[in-house]
Amino acid sequence: MDAQKVDMFIMTNGKFFESHQVAQLRDRLLEIDDSKWALIQTLQFKDPTVSLIVSLFAGGLGIDRFFIGDTGLGVGKLLTCGGLGIWTIVDWFMIMGATREKNLAKLQQVLY
């Protein structure tokens, strides 16, 4: 893969991944062939900032977990009213990391 394309991808999509994972992603993207590049360009990643905002306003209903694709946790959070509020507060601190992990998993499905 062309290093310039990979660097542009990292610059535009770096906020969707944990900072310590970016170097490993760059190395893996440099190794892939051009046939997967079009598929990688079409991936839609969830914005961690948006998931935090959703969590702040509607986290007690589990909408933040539904937003990132954790349907089971979303249902659990909905049925327990956000774990009586405790789970909701914990998610305010953890939802951005969970969103970035989901984005990484989505990219790794294409890469491997």
TrEMBL record:
The lineage of its organism: Bacteria, Pseudomonadati, Bacteroidota, Bacteroidia, Marinilabiliales. Keywords: Membrane, Transmembrane, Transmembrane helix. It is a multi-pass membrane protein. PANTHER family: BETA-AMYLOID BINDING PROTEIN-RELATED (PTHR21016), TM2 DOMAIN-CONTAINING PROTEIN DDB_G0277895-RELATED (PTHR21016:SF25). One of its GO terms (cellular component) is membrane. This is TM2 domain-containing protein. It comes from Plebeiibacterium sediminum. Its main location: membrane. Pfam families: TM2 (PF05154). It is found in: Membrane. The chain crosses the membrane at residues 74-95. Residues 45-93 form the TM2 domain.
